[in-house]
Amino acid sequence: MKCMICKKAETVPGTTTVMLERGGLTLVIKNVPAKVCSNCGEAYVDERTTEQMLSIAEQMAASGALVDIRQYSAV
What is the pTM of this model? Predict the structure, then answer.
């Protein structure tokens, strides 16, 4: 897929770090599988992975944690 940001390069399989914030909660997920632009570094995460990360964020919010950093793990 061609990068929608720089429009100069194709994306390649890789990983990225995603930070999600809501209210006073912060969740950082490392090593998230993504398609990454080889020119500008913009990362694109697919729908299934996004759903999994949002589920993790909901669990974190329910636990009462304010900050959480974790490695991505496919469910």
Answer: 0.88
